[in-house]
Amino acid sequence: MSMELEISPESGFLRVVATGEFSLGEARRTFLEVLEAVAVHQAGKVLLDGRGVVGDPKIIERFYYGSFVARATTESFRRGRLSCLPRFAYVLEEPGLDPHRFGESVAVNRGMYLKAFDNLPEALGWLGILSATNNGERSK
Q: Domain limits at 116?
């Protein structure tokens, strides 16, 4: 089973909903899709909801993924495809969400603005998107 993305630009951010079975190759492939959408929409903030992704990434996969997303993002920025380095908020559930946030640390140490959360409201708050309810629907 592959990973699938639903990408929708919203006011002030790009919402990405990922589903499917985790594999490092699929995670890399789908991140490049996200990065392309970030470039097209010149999004400065990305909410990646991965609660629909199943699997238990190994520690080395977390390392490789964190390294990959940081390298891909900074290269896109250096090449002028991105107007800024975007902030990425990942919403995940265990076991996809590492309680020690190893993959997050790897990406951040390589220049990413990224943080992993176990709930949507905190992720939206970190992104500075305050007009959303707990279920992710926009409110007035």
A: 4-127
Task: State the total domains in the chain.
Answer: 1
Q: Cα separation of 34 and 16, whole Å?
A: 8
pTM of the model: 0.90
- The 10 Å CB-count burial string (b at 16+, else e) for 68-103 is bbbebbeebbeeeebeebbbbbbbbeeebbbeebbb
> Which of left, alpha, beta for 80 (phi over 0: left; psi -120 to 50: alpha)?
left
Q: Does residue 9 register a pLDDT over 50?
A: yes
Give the span between the Cα atoms of 46 and 48, in whole angstroms: 6
* Mean pLDDT across the chain: 93
CATH code of the domain covering residue 47 = 3.30.750.24
**95 cis-preceded (ω within 30 degrees of 0):** yes
Q: Where are the alpha helices (DSSP H) in the chain?
A: 24-41, 59-78, 102-109, 120-127
> What separation in angstroms does the CA of 136 have from each of 17, 18, 32, 120?
11, 14, 24, 7
Closest CA relative to residue 70, chosen from 84, 56, 85, 83:
85
Whether 132 is in a domain gets the answer no
